[in-house]
Amino acid sequence: MERRDGKRMFTIGSLDWIVIAAYMLGMVAIGLFAGRKLKGYEDHILSGRQVPTHYLAPGLLTTQIGAGSIIGFVGLSYSIGYSGGWWIISNIVTFIVLGLIGAKPLREAIGSKTLPEWFGNRYNEKSRLFTSITIAIAEIAFTTGQIVGGGLLFSVLLGWDPKIGIFAFSIIVVTYTVLGGLWAVFITDFVQMFVMFAGVTALIAVGVMDTGGITNLIKTSPEGYFTLVKDGQISTVIAQILYAIPAIFCSFDIIQKIMSAKSPQVARNSCYWAAGGVVFFAITMPLIGILGYHILGPNVENPEMITPLLIGTILPIGLKGLAISAVLATLMSSASACLIAASAVITNDICKYFVNFEKLEEKRKLSINIWLTLFLGVISWAIASFYDKAMGNMELAWTALSCGAFIPLIAGLLWKKASSAGAISSMLTGALTGMIWLFNDNPLGWRPIIPAYIVGILVLVLVSVLFPNKTGNYVGSRNQEDLVG
Fold first, then answer.
1. CA torsion through residues 55, 61, 63, 67, sign
2. Among candidates 88, 63, 84, 66, which has minimal Cα distance to 147?
3. Residues 29 and 74 in one domain
4. 205, 154, 149, 148: which is closest to 10 by C-alpha?
5. Same structural domain for residues 338 and 264?
6. Could you tell me the keywords of this UniProt record (predicted)?
7. Does 6 fall in a domain?
């Protein structure tokens, strides 16, 4: 099959189709296999809390490296070089921080199946309700974003109508996630990690050879393309790291996997292994953007399509199918994680306000979560296909969540005197500050999280001191004496 994109001709050979089809059918087969492990509700949303390091570390890594990395930040690096990859680089820091202060206590909180439930146990039901609603909406938005990315990939490389690509991508992701739950997500993530490594390596190797080697690439690139921190950019770098840390702590698709670890030590160590894996993508993703600048020229109309355009332009038949599968892997791993996270929060933390979910039989709870996962998959597909303008409104929930929940989360982990009144006050004022800042186009050039965190910290400390808890609520660690008093 050949298709023309402007002046470029893409050839998708039979071998490429075989590789792509084998990959996608393999994902569905894994879902069927993982479904055999499901005995109850907690197996579907937490894999029975029995996930070992060799599944958890790839799961954390592939969930975090999604459409933003393979599409957005490759496109940014096409325009400005390696300094466009700081979001990816910052995830090295965030996984280390998560391992140091968050992974063990969140896994030790065995009375909490979700992050909102942890907030409810640590603080009160109001904080649980706030985080459950914002997380559910945000995770659906993230799922939709990955589906849109998959549809664009099919459109650019295979010449499909974007809506057909979105439908095909949705069918695969929703099927294996529904059938196998979080176990399917972990096993597919394990496979997808190797597909991602192989596909990205193939693309880089062929691209570097086509441009005359890495030395020639450095010499002929625009000034500053291989500079990690440009003059006057240090504040931007710090802001990226400050933004990335709450992004990972407040992402239940990540925290859900932490809570599913076989032990607190596995949870912590997997974060460190994931940080090491990010190094590979921190090096390769910006390099793909720079290769795109040299091979495709400086005037590509849509830089976010650099990766698929590069795949279609330079890779031979066979490797092209591998690279397409690699990009699909980055998108599918993130989409499936976000989808199962959304369904878990709704059944565990929102349904309780309408039905006594905990009193239901285990098989009944499992059935409800399976059907809800399917329903949310259909909703995500519909939004991606027909209601793309809704994405902006849905992502406001992420602004409210990250600006409101991060400070109470960190305080709940590290400061045993953080009170319920302080937490909910910090959540509301932080979220409100962030939204006001966002709607006023970020005064002073600050992202909403900066003023939100300043306000959130002040409010949490002040209200916690004035209105302390009458009894200890700390649920995050077995060793309260390790906390700041």
1. negative
2. 66
3. yes
4. 154
5. yes
6. Cell membrane, Membrane, Transmembrane, Transmembrane helix, Transport
7. no
CA-closest candidate to residue 248, choices 55, 347, 106? 106
- Give the tens place of pLDDT for each residue, 324-365: 898 888 889 889 999 999 999 999 999 988 888 888 898 899
Q: Which residue has the tokens 């409210």?
A: 400
Note whether 319 and 436 are same-domain residues: no
- Determine the Cα–Cα distance for residues 217 and 95; give it in Å rounded to an integer: 31
DSSP secondary structure, 94-129, as one string: HHHHIIIIIHHHHHH-TT-SSHHHHHHHHS-HHHHH
Residue that finishes a domain, picked among 388, 407, 435: 388
Domain that holds residue 418: 397-485
Instruction: State the Cα–Cα distance between residues 175 and 240, nearest whole angstrom.
Output: 35
Confirm if 139 and 334 have CB atoms less than 8 A apart.
no
pLDDT of residue 471: 65
pTM score, whole prediction: 0.88
Are 195 and 149 in a shared domain?
Answer: yes
User: Domain check: are 259 and 276 in the same one?
Assistant: yes
C-alpha 272/C-alpha 368 separation (Å) is 35
pLDDT in tens, 407-453: 999 999 999 999 999 999 999 999 999 999 988 988 887 788 889 99
The CA distance from 400 to 428, in Å, is 9
DSSP state of 484: B
User: Is residue 3 included in any domain, yes or no?
Assistant: no
